[in-house]
Automatic annotation (TrEMBL):
Keywords: Blood coagulation, Calcium, Cleavage on pair of basic residues, Disulfide bond, EGF-like domain, Gamma-carboxyglutamic acid, Glycoprotein, Hemostasis, Hydrolase, Magnesium, Metal-binding, Phosphoprotein, Protease, Repeat, Secreted, Serine protease, Signal, Zymogen. One of its GO terms (molecular function) is calcium ion binding. The lineage of its organism: Eukaryota, Metazoa, Chordata, Craniata, Vertebrata. Residues 182-415, 652-883, 1015-1232 form the Peptidase S1 domain. InterPro entries: Coagulation_fac-like_Gla_dom (IPR017857), EGF (IPR000742), EGF-like_Ca-bd_dom (IPR001881), EGF-type_Asp/Asn_hydroxyl_site (IPR000152), EGF_Ca-bd_CS (IPR018097), GLA-like_dom_SF (IPR035972), GLA_domain (IPR000294), Peptidase_S1_coag_factors (IPR050442). The gene is F10. One of its GO terms (cellular component) is extracellular space. Residues 77-113, 499-535 form the EGF-like domain. SMART domains: EGF (SM00181), EGF_CA (SM00179), GLA (SM00069), Tryp_SPc (SM00020). Its EC number is 3.4.21.21, 3.4.21.22, 3.4.21.6. This is Coagulation factor IX. It is found in: Secreted. Disulfide bonds join C103-C112, C525-C534.
Length: 1232
């Protein structure tokens, strides 16, 4: 048998015992050995399979060391991987009596049973937990989630189990871009601060709060001093406090719980809980904030750089509260740093946050509101707005209640309490304990040594007793209060009971008064000292809280010197300002309490570069500064350039009505049609501040003050303008130096509805006013972009915008003389028609002028801001002008005075390609008349599609409608008449009122070429100082003559009227002043007009009559294009001693026909005429064409200079006089 076994092993050594069979050996039932066992030959079957063999027995069988070792390795070490020890997809490798696992990347350990992050401690990245992390005694940390969440299968993530879990913002989840926070203080749109609560008392906003559970609100304890719970209401889902918002909910307060250790003097433990009358319904606008565990808040949230504070509080110290929910992101400040800069007594229950420069902070009205911190897309409550020194004051921070200190108190207070209603009856039968046992303060420290008596079942339902509650046991403050039933006695007892008298060591220095507190003390310091122990001497600085000055602050060594604005007196305390009269500047006597919009934003730092003003620092422009004529009068007068720009898209959108007396410094500039076109700010009884670009927008300016509704009852007073001062450096292309001052002829009578704004000092404006959170803008401008102007005065509050952000947002230069204000997204802004109006900043209830509405890109457009002239840069300039004692000038000085008229000829015409062209307000004169406009430009001018494309009703009534002028209205028209005429009863005909009615000459012409005397009674002849004739002209009104600029430069001194020849000299009237059109270019002949003012008026008769001046639309669409006229002028040959008047009939010639004949393209100010009679001689300067219409003659054009080398004796080019009549009217009206 043994030989056969050996033979079998020799054939196949590996078949001796297979690996799998060897592993089963230990499972075989061992056969019982009998006594002859050891006498038999060795057998694998018997020795090692049926039984357990030893090495010697296996060696005896194989009789070979090598084969025995091979067998023994398998026999004694089965495959260690058979049990699949490697977990989580690991690969097992068998070894001698061992194995090892090759683990996938996300696992490790001997059996791949450990994930690497399970070794993390909570201090490192919060253990990778999404929310809360707790370290365990082993190497594994445990993640957990807030209420409403469950831990995901990955053991780190948190999955919401409810529709509206805490700390989430549902409205953001619906947006493609979920960025909902904006650093710098902007409004918090509906649903983006869903835990914010508004607490009201008797309907008035009291404080903020934060929703932490369906029935619980956390707020600040100091909000509820002397407050009756029944008068409180809680609003959730609120955004605009003056409107009913979507998702808004309101609840009463059933229980008000103030922390038992709250100190109303130190504001320590400034926390309170309010239980609502009914649970709120969670929605996308109402969601609770998450309450973090203390360790998570201290180790994780405390190291998040920025947190968010929200509320409806005041937008600046002393200012109005906000109508919109606002939010601001602020950093948390280390306690040591906070104390170093503020010297505040910051307890362990408080923390500091904010900016030292005072740019962003919470303020009064925000109290009780949330300080929340975001971590991994979930928001947690970390603080409660508590207190601070001022609001966003420089050199200080805001103080917040540290919520993590009250985690246990909050949970225990909000935990459900069972009411044992069944035993209340039994309680009333219990004997009442004695209440006359009062503990004296000197033995209060013995309480802790008393043996506590076991409470009976109904202990808490018995009457309060000091002996039982606080001596035999350890009592709470509520139990002590129940016993004393007096707050003052309870406080005195409690302070000693808890920690003894903290003031016994007299810790307050320099005469400070010590007040004992719970575990602490408070020092009330004498003036000039501060700090916890009154051990810091206060060095006053104008940069810290403006040196406590109400108005202006000036540093003097280590002290400050306060002063006040004009009409104020410095108070006896040396820092307050007392109004010196009933109507002192900047006083809003009818100031409303209603909140204005908008919130804290960025600081803007400016410097005043105007240390000295030269005599030529301003240019004087009289009443009608829009005039484009210059006056030839004085040899040494200065030539003033005018801006050709009619105005930018300048610009209140979405403002509220400013009621009578609430914007008393507002002025309105109106034209002669009674339409308001710009605003202004009253500075004094005779001075109004406005924008320089407003001055060129109209032909005549009148100032209205005290007006709030231009459509209703007139409350305002109209004031005539005496002078206008435009800054000499004003740049129309960029609107740099956009400032002007209007001087009135008569002083303003101040009242509670009309009060000037205060003019600040430059330092006060730069360092204090422009670092406030917002300014106030008002005006009658458009209430929306491309909308109509407002009939009522609107006002809106706009935040200052950081200068760098402003520059990045604009396509145009923002100079040092400008600043920005407005919102990035909120649709509130100044708009067209507000230009020149005030930007006011309030400080300690006094309102100062800080800006002038200048320009902007659109109105309230996203990402764009309004641009304002920075008044602080021009304080010396303004004061210099207001100190001027200028005599009242003649009305003719409205125009530029110069003897050297040739200077005017070098002026160049404005190019239509200016890079700022498209930001200006749409204007038909500029866009469609001076240039060729597109439909879009016309639409921009009308700002109404129907009006842009609607037909002109006057064009269809040309023969049967108005006798003279027709004004189209939407689907209608109205008629009017020239000067000297009155509209008849049919509202169409025009009736002459006197013998000076213009153009009224109907006798037939005697000769078509050489008319007789009196046939053109408006034709005049100009004489020089030698009595020789030089040019012609036409009579306008009774004391003005219109001629050409080339004639005016020849210095005419007299005018002959009433004769067609020089002989006889019917009337010779001296010339008082020559007014040359400012844009006249002697190189091209463009704008070749001048207006002569006569020293006296003519006597009207058949021989002496003025020509009528037509309205532009009537002239260009009726007279020129469809009628024949008469060209009259004097022959050009000055060698004639007796020049004769020449007349030629002229018919209109189309532009294309004219171009073919003269090979020249016409500009928009020109038209072409043709005569059937060939001219035999040239006409002199000052030749005009007039057209009769329904019995009245109207002036339509002036003959342009002939080019002799290309002269055509039948075809003539005329300049349309209608394009210049606005300026002509302006000059004529101001001559009286």
């Amino acid at each position: 048998l043994l030989q056969k076994l050996k033979a079998s092993h020799n054939r196949n050594r590996k078949e001796i015992l297979k690996h799998q069979e060897a592993s089963n050996i230990l499972q075989r039932t061992r056969r019982a050995n009998y006594f002859l066992e050891e006498l038999k030959a060795g057998s694998i079957e018997r020795e090692c399979l049926e039984e357990k063999c030893s090495w010697e027995e296996a060696r005896e069988i194989f009789q070979d060391d090598l084969r025995t070792k091979e067998f023994w390795a398998v026999y004694t070490d089965p495959d260690q991987c058979d049990s699949n020890p490697c977990q989580n997809g690991g690969t097992c490798i068998d070894r001698h009596q061992d194995y090892f696992c090759i683990c996938p990347p996300e696992h490790e350990g001997r059996n791949c049973e450990i994930r690497p992050e399970s070794k993390l401690k909570c201090f490192f990245k919060n253990g990778n937990c999404e929310q809360f992390c707790v370290d365990s005694p082993t190497t594994l940390r445990q993640c957990s989630c807030a209420e409403g969440y469950r831990l995901a299968s990955d053991q780190v993530s948190c999955i919401a189990e409810v529709d509206y879990p805490c700390g989430k913002i549902p409205v953001l989840a619906k947006r493609p871009n979920q960025q909902g926070r904006i650093i710098g203080g902007y409004d918090c749109p509906p649903g983006e601060c869903p835990w914010q609560a508004l607490i009201t008392e008797n309907g008035n906003e009291k404080c903020g709060g934060v929703l932490v559970a369906p029935s619980w609100i956390i707020s600040a304890a100091h909000c509820f001093s002397r407050v009756h719970r029944q008068n409180l209401r809680i609003r959730l889902g609120e955004y605009h406090i003056n409107h009913r918002d979507e998702g808004e909910q309101e609840r009463r307060v059933d229980e008000l719980i103030i922390h038992e250790k709250y100190s109303f003097k130190t504001l320590d433990n400034d926390i309170a809980l309010l239980r609502l009358s009914a649970p709120v319904n969670f929605s996308e606008y109402v969601v609770p904030i998450c309450l973090p565990p203390p360790r998570f808040a201290a180790d994780i949230l405390n190291y998040v750089e920025f947190s968010t504070v929200s509320g409806w509080g005041r937008l600046l110290e002393g200012g109005a509260t906000s109508a919109l929910l606002m939010r601001v992101e602020i950093p948390k400040i280390h306690k040591k740093e906070c104390f170093l800069h503020t010297k505040f007594n910051i307890t362990d229950n408080m923390f500091c946050a904010g900016y030292l420069d005072g740019s962003k902070d919470s303020c009064e009205g925000d109290s009780g509101g949330p300080h929340v911190t975001e971590y991994k897309n979930t928001w947690y409550l970390t603080g409660i707005v508590s207190w601070g020194k001022g609001c966003a004051a420089i050199g200080t921070y805001g103080i917040y209640t540290k919520v993590i200190k009250y985690h246990r108190w909050l949970n225990s207070t909000m935990a459900p309490q069972l009411l044992l209603c069944l035993i209340l009856t039994f309680l009333w039968s219990l004997p009442e304990a004695e209440s006359n046992v009062f503990l004296k303060s000197q033995v209060a420290n013995r309480f802790l040594q008393r043996t506590k008596r076991a409470n009976s079942l109904f202990e808490e339902f018995k009457s309060g007793n000091i002996e039982r509650e606080c001596i035999e046991e350890r009592c709470s403050k509520e139990e002590a209060r129940e016993a004393f039933e007096d707050n003052e006695k309870t406080e005195a007892f409690w302070n000693d009971y808890i920690d003894g008298n903290q003031c016994s060591s007299n810790p307050c220095h320099y005469g400070g008064t010590c007040k004992d507190g719970i575990g602490n003390y408070t020092c009330t310091c004498l003036a000039g000292y501060q700090g916890k122990n009154c051990d810091y001497l206060i060095y006053k600085s104008c940069r810290v809280d403006n040196g406590n000055c109400w108005h202006f602050c000036k540093p003097v060594q280590n002290e400050v010197q306060c002063s006040c604005a004009e009409t104020y007196l410095l108070g006896d305390d040396g820092h307050s300002c007392v109004a010196g009269g009933d109507f002192s500047c900047g006083r809003n006597i009818k100031a409303r309490n209603k909140r204005e919009a908008n919130l804290p934003d960025f600081q803007t730092v400016f410097s005043d570069s105007y240390d000295a003003i030269d005599e030529n620092d301003f240019a004087e422009t009289p009443t009608n500064s829009s005039s484009l004529f210059s006056t030839v009068q004085s040899q040494n007068a200065t030539l003033l350039r005018k801006s050709d720009n009619p105005g930018p898209e300048t610009r209140v959108v979405n403002g509220t009505d400013c009621k009578l007396g609430e914007c008393p410094w507002q002025a309105l500039l109106i034209n002669d049609q009674g339409d308001g076109f710009c605003g202004g700010t009253i500075l004094s009884p005779i001075y109004v501040l406005t924008a320089a670009h407003c001055i060129n927008q109209t032909k005549h300016i009148t100032v209205v003050v005290g007006e709030i509704d231009i459509s209703g009852k007139k409350n305002g007073r109209l004031l005539a303008v005496d002078k206008i001062y435009v800054h000499q450096k004003f740049v129309p292309a960029t609107y740099d130096y956009d400032i002007a001052i209007i001087q009135l002829k008569a002083p303003i009578q101040f009242s509670e509805n009309v009060i000037p704004a205060c003019l600040p000092t430059a330092d006060f404006a730069n360092q204090v006013l422009m670092k406030q959170n917002f300014g106030i803008v008002s005006g009658f401008g458009r209430t929306r972009e491309r909308g109509r102007t407002s009939n009522t005065l609107k006002v809106v509050s706009l935040p200052y915008v950081d200068r760098h952000i402003c520059k990045l947002s604009s396509n145009f230069p923002i100079t040092e003389n400008m600043f920005c204000a407005g919102y990035n997204t909120l649709p509130q802004d100044a708009c067209q028609g507000d230009s020149g109006g005030p930007h006011i900043t309030a400080y300690r209830d006094t309102h100062f002028i800080t800006g002038i509405i200048s320009w902007g890109e659109g109105c309230a457009q996203t990402g764009k801001y309004g641009v304002y002239t920075k008044v602080s840069k021009f304080i010396p300039w303004i004061k210099r002008i207001m100190r001027q004692k200028l005599p009242r000038t003649e009305t003719s000085t409205v125009f530029l005075e110069t003897e050297d008229a040739n200077q005017v000829l070098t002026r160049s015409r404005r190019g239509a390609f200016m890079f700022l062209e498209e930001i200006f307000q749409g204007d038909l004169e500029r866009e469609c008349l001076e240039e060729r406009c597109t439909y879009e430009e016309a639409r921009e001018a009308f700002e109404n599609t129907e009006e842009t494309v609607s037909k002109n009703e006057c064009r269809h009534e040309i023969h049967t409608g108005c006798q003279q002028f027709c004004y189209p209205e939407f689907n209608f028209y109205r008629c009017s008449c020239a000067q000297g005429y009155q509209l008849g009863e049919d509202d169409k005909s025009c009736i002459a009122q006197d013998e000076c009615a213009c153009g009224k000459f109907q006798e037939p012409l005697s000769c078509p070429l050489h008319p007789a005397d009196r046939e053109f009674p408006w034709q005049v002849l100009l004489l020089n100082s030698e009595g020789k004739w030089i040019c012609g002209g036409v009579l306008l009104k009774t004391n003005f003559v219109l001629t050409t600029a080339e004639c005016a430069v020849l210095s005419p001194v007299g005018v002959v009227v009433g004769s067609n020849q020089l002989q006889g000299l019917n009337q010779v009237i001296p010339v008082k002043a020559s007014n040359i059109y400012l844009r006249y270019d002697n190189t091209t002949g463009e704008n070749n007009l001048a207006l002569l003012e006569l020293s006296s008026q003519i006597d009207c008769d058949r021989n002496h009559l003025p020509i009528c001046i037509p309205e532009k639309d009537f002239a260009e669409h009726v007279l020129i294009s469809q009628m024949e006229g008469s060209l009259t002028g004097w022959n050009a040959n000055r060698s004639y001693l007796t020049p004769s008047l020449v007349q030629r009939p002229i018919s209109y010639l189309s532009e294309n026909d004219c171009k073919q004949i003269l090979n020249r393209k016409l500009i928009t100010r020109e038209f072409c005429g043709h005569s059937q009679v060939q001219a035999k001689e040239m006409l002199g300067g000052g030749s005009f064409i007039a057209v009769p219409y329904k019995g009245t003659w109207f002036l339509t054009g002036v003959l342009e200079p002939w080019a002799t080398e290309t002269v055509n004796w039948k075809t003539f080019i005329f300049t349309k006089t209608s394009r210049y009549m606005i300026n002509v009217h302006s000059l004529q009206e101001n001559s009286f």
